[in-house]
């Protein structure tokens, strides 16, 4: 087995990288993209420098981990940025601006309101009488901030 590993040259690494990239085209959602690029990088490195088979595999593992981790970090920040701007499936953002009529009077501070078919914890910025309409101005976790529509 060691004899086989010692015979690996840069063309083997380049072919391995291209095979992984071809597998990526099947639709593996990026799993083989960075591993394939790492194999091609080892092939290029091996073409320029003589490396033992242990160093080749260590370089391949290191490049794979580093490139995958860097891509994951970039993708995570992009996902957070795009999530901040959308409202689909984010109920808290959909609640801001909605109005409801109070069934009982609310004093400034913590209270509970009915909105739709559920009851919510809320913080009122003003005293509000029963029957008046309030608007949701902010959401903090599961606590709504409400204020009267007529101030």
Descriptive overview:
The protein is an alpha+beta fold and 151 residues long. The chain is built from five helices and five strands, in the order αααααβββββ. A five-stranded mixed beta sheet has the order 1-4-5-3-2. A hairpin with a 2-residue loop joins β4 and β5. α3 packs antiparallel against α4. The protein is rod-shaped.
List the helices and strands and how they pair.
Layout: H1 2-6, H2 10-27, H3 33-48, H4 53-84, H5 91-95, E1 99-101, E2 109-115, E3 118-124, E4 133-140, E5 143-148
Parallel strand pairs: 3-5
Antiparallel strand pairs: 1-4, 2-3, 4-5
Q: Could you tell me the radius of gyration in angstroms?
A: 29 Å
Number of helices: 5
Helical amount:
40-55%
The residue ranges in which pLDDT falls below 50 over 5 or more consecutive positions are: none
Strand adjacency order, main sheet: 1-4-5-3-2
Rounded mean pLDDT score: 87
Q: How much strand?
A: 15-25%
Reading the helices and strands in chain order gives: HHHHHEEEEE
The major beta sheet can be summarized as:
5 strands, mixed
Summary, kept brief:
The chain is α+β, with helices and mostly antiparallel strands. It is built from five helices and five strands.
Please describe the structure with a list of short key phrases separated by commas or semicolons:
single chain, about 150 residues, alpha+beta, 5-stranded mixed beta sheet, about 50% helix, rod-shaped
């Amino acid at each position: 087995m060691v004899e086989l590993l010692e015979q690996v040259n840069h063309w083997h690494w380049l072919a391995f990288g291209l095979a992984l990239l071809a597998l990526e085209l099947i639709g593996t959602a990026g799993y083989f993209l960075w591993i394939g690029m790492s194999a091609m990088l080892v092939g290029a490195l091996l073409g320029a420098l003589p490396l033992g088979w242990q160093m080749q595999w260590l370089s391949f593992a290191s490049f794979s981990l580093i490139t995958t981790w860097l891509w994951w970090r970039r993708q995570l920040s992009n996902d957070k940025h795009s999530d901040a701007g959308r409202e689909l499936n984010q109920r808290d953002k959909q609640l801001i601006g909605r109005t409801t009529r109070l069934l009982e009077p609310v004093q400034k501070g913590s209270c509970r309101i009915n909105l739709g078919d559920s009851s919510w914890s809320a913080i009122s910025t003003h005293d509000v009488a029963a029957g008046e309409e309030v608007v949701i101005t902010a959401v903090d976790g599961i606590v709504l901030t409400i204020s009267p529509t007529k101030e």
